[in-house]
Write a structure and sequence with these properties.
91 residues; 4 helices; Tsi6; Tsi6 domain-containing protein
Length: 91
Amino acid sequence: MIDRDRALASIRKSLALLAIRAIQNPGHGVYIHADEQLTRMLMELGYSYLPTAPEREWVDIGLMAVKELDDMDSEFANALMKADYDFKHAK
């Protein structure tokens, strides 16, 4: 299991990388989707009750990162995959 602090750190790192990239292309669908998911992940980690693992299956930014970003922006893709994993395994 991953502790909440680690999950929060990986989500915040992804958001910081996203902010840099979104300046150049704010309407890019991948960036919009990543922002929506990362923001919701932060919100859910702020609750005292964390949804169970099956209730976190709505997160798909890791898969999206592999499909859409891995070849052209591996740093951001890796950050999104880590945030996805950490969130889904947070306790």
